[in-house]
Structure formats: structure tokens, C-alpha cells
Design goal:
- With about 300 residues, the protein is an alpha/beta fold.
- It has 12 helices and 8 strands.
- It has 2 domains: about 45 residues, no CATH class; about 240 residues, TIM Barrel (Alpha-Beta Barrel), CATH 3.20.20.220.
- Helix content is about 50%, strand content about 15%.
- An 8-stranded parallel barrel has the order 1-2-3-4-5-6-7-8, surrounded by 6 helices.
- Strand 5, helix 8 and strand 6 form a beta-alpha-beta unit.
- The longest helix has 20 residues.
- The chain starts with a helix and ends with a helix.
- The relative contact order is 0.15.
- It binds dihydroflavine-adenine dinucleotide (FDA).
- The site of dihydroflavine-adenine dinucleotide has 24 residues, from strand 4, strand 5, strand 7 and helix 11.
- Dihydroflavine-adenine dinucleotide binds next to strand 4, strand 5, strand 7 and helix 11.
């Protein structure tokens, strides 16, 4: 019954007015302005978390806009440095021009990688839908000389991911997540349990290849299993970190990780394009109906 109510609410969300969605989307987004997001990063740092900042938005169609976003990220890299924050950045290729053309995208990502490298910082190329998988992975491989400043994301739901992972060099840097896009069953695993099984298999391969892994999940079963593998194989704490999304409630597992000095990085998205991202997060919240009703009466 509860599951059914959740499902109905999820289907209704896109029909709700934006101002109403904002009421309960707010918790997943660190405001609209960079200054606000940086304050949140600072607070998270003080509470023991590393961060990664993401300016919300995707599929930029305008050349000037994709350049402007690139410069905004460059500015953020400088602000992270001058404020001495423990924070890197996460970027979607389609936000900085991959839909416009490869030349535009390559120029923008090159500017960002060079800046991150100069500032001793790091860029994570977020993984979007399957149309961008090759581009993202190739961009990572082609910038091998900036290896220490660049990382990619692999999605456990894609059938190709094991091959992609095997094609990476030792000492690469990945974020491993389940995957959020609605991919076709011809290329993606749909059964949640099988996605988890694949996630763990991929994690083991990554550790065997001495690849640095951002273990990006809130799934307690996956985190427990990851800890078991880490402990059993004596994986050094500087070869992985846990990653979680801003706004997803912290629980006993998070407390345990913090207390035991495991690194946790919080993905902190912000900006005026909050709507699509928030909808994706709201849909993943298993308590969505309760949560919306609570906010309704606040
Ligand atoms: P799952 O969805 O099964 O959630 C496990 C439990 O976590 C739930 O039962 C619930 O308790 C809690 N939970 C999860 N989401 C919640 C929410 N929104 N509100 C409240 N509780 C929630 N995907 C992608 O395709 N490309 C990418 O680049 C990234 N990047 C990325 C970075 C980071 C740091 C994270 C954590 C995730 C991503 N993702 C992503 C998203 C990822 O693919 C996936 O969709 C979400 O993390 C949800 O999956 P979980 O692994 O958390 O499991």
C-alpha cells in the first residue's frame, strides 16, 4: 500500500507547480549562489566531510553559455583554493558543451583540467546517459598526463562497465555508482539485486587493479559489503573514499564511517537549474510520500 502511494506521488510530481516542488527539493540542493554553496561546503568540512561541488545543469545548447559555465567552474576552483576548502568539482560533459560539438567540449574540459592541476585540485567527470559514456571515458583516457587531477564515473547498471573498467590503467580514479538514467534493458541491468551483485564484482576488480574508488552509494548492504572486502584485503584508506549526496539523510552507517576515520565526500549540487536534479533525488527517496506530506504541513 505504502509502495503504491509512493508510486502515485512520484508520477504526480512532474505535474506539481515548481514553487511547490521547491519546498521539498531544497534539502537536496545547496542554494542558488556560489557563496551559499561554499558556506555549506565549509560547514561540511568542519563536520569532517570532504566535498565535491557541482553546478546544476545539463545539455547546454548555447556556445556562450557553455563557456560561461566553464569560467564559473574555474572561478570556483580559485575560491576553493583561497578559502582553503577540502573540495573538488564534478562536471557533466553536456553542461560544458558536448552537445554543441566536440571541439567546444574538448577546449572547455582542457581549461578546467589545466586549472585543477595548477591548483592541485581534482575534477570528476560525472557520467550521464549512455550517449555520453564513450565520450566521458575517452576524455579521461586522452588526458592521462593529468591523471592526478582527473577522474571518471562508472555505472554498475551498464552491461559494458566491466569491459570499461578492465580497459582502464592501474592507478586510475573512478567513482562507482549504481546509475541513475532510465537506460534500455538491452544495455542495462534492471534488477536491483543484480545491479548490486555487479557493483560488488566491479569494486573487487577495481581494488585488484589498484584503482582509486569513490564508493558512491547510500545502500547499507553495499557499504557493509564494501567494508568487508576492504578489511579482508587490507585495502589502504588512501585507495578509496565513500561518497554520498547532499541532503540524503545520514544514518548509523555514516556515523560509523566517520567515527572510524573513513573518508566521506559529499556531492554538493547548487545553482539555478535545480529542478531536474531534485526530481531525480525525490524519486529515489523511499519515504517520499511521508516526506512530502510532512513538508506540506510545515
Ligand atoms: P538506493 O537508491 O538503493 O538507495 C539506498 C538507500 O539510500 C535507500 O533505501 C534510502 O534509504 C537512501 N536513499 C537513496 N537516495 C535517497 C534520497 N534521494 N532521499 C532519501 N534517501 C535516499 N549516477 C549517475 O548515473 N552518474 C553519476 O555521475 C552519479 N554520481 C553520483 C555521485 C554520488 C556521490 C552518489 C552518491 C550518487 C551518484 N549517482 C550518479 C547516483 C547513483 O547512480 C544512484 O542513482 C543513487 O546514488 C541512488 O542509489 P544508491 O546507491 O544510493 O542506492
Amino acid at each position: 500500500m505504502y509502495y503504491l502511494v509512493n508510486k502515485i506521488i512520484i508520477n504526480l510530481i512532474p505535474l506539481l507547480p515548481k514553487f511547490f516542488v521547491k519546498l521539498f527539493a531544497n534539502k537536496y540542493v545547496a542554494g542558488v549562489k556560489t557563496s551559499h554553496a561554499l558556506k555549506i561546503v565549509s560547514k561540511l568540512n568542519n563536520n569532517g566531510f570532504s566535498c565535491t561541488l557541482d553546478i546544476l545543469g545539463e545539455h547546454t545548447a548555447d556556445l556562450e553559455e557553455s563557456d560561461a559555465i566553464t569560467y564559473k567552474y574555474i572561478d570556483i576552483l580559485d575560491k576553493i583554493k583561497s578559502n582553503n576548502l577540502d573540495c573538488n568539482i564534478s562536471i557533466k560533459p553536456s553542461h560544458i558543451g558536448s552537445d554543441i560539438g566536440s571541439e567546444n567540449f574538448n577546449q572547455n574540459i582542457a581549461k578546467l583540467i589545466i586549472k585543477a592541476n595548477k591548483n592541485n585540485n581534482f575534477i570528476r567527470i560525472d557520467m550521464e546517459d549512455n550517449k555520453l559514456t564513450d565520450l566521458s571515458i575517452n576524455t579521461y583516457k586522452n588526458n592521462n598526463k593529468y591523471k592526478n587531477s582527473l577522474g571518471i564515473v562508472l555505472q554498475a547498471y551498464l552491461m559494458r562497465t566491466k569491459d570499461d573498467l578492465n580497459s582502464l590503467e592501474e592507478n586510475s580514479n573512478i567513482r562507482l555508482c549504481k546509475g541513475i538514467y532510465n537506460e534500455d534493458k538491452s544495455i542495462a541491468i534492471k534488477d536491483p539485486q543484480s545491479i548490486n551483485t555487479n557493483y560488488i564484482e566491479l569494486l573487487k576488480i577495481a581494488f585488484n587493479k589498484d584503482i582509486y574508488v569513490g564508493i558512491a552509494t547510500h545502500d547499507k548492504k553495499l557499504i557493509d559489503k564494501a567494508l568487508e572486502i576492504i578489511k579482508k584485503n587490507g585495502i589502504d584508506k588512501n585507495k578509496f573514499e565513500f561518497q554520498m549526496l547532499y541532503g540524503v539523510p545520514m544514518d548509523k552507517t555514516t556515523e560509523y564511517l566517520l567515527k572510524n576515520n573513513y573518508k566521506i565526500r559529499i556531492y554538493v549540487p547548487y545553482g539555478r537549474n535545480w529542478y531536474d536534479y531534485s526530481i531525480r533525488r525525490i524519486k529515489e527517496n523511499p519515504n517520499i510520500s511521508k516526506y512530502i506530506i510532512q513538508n506540506l504541513f510545515k
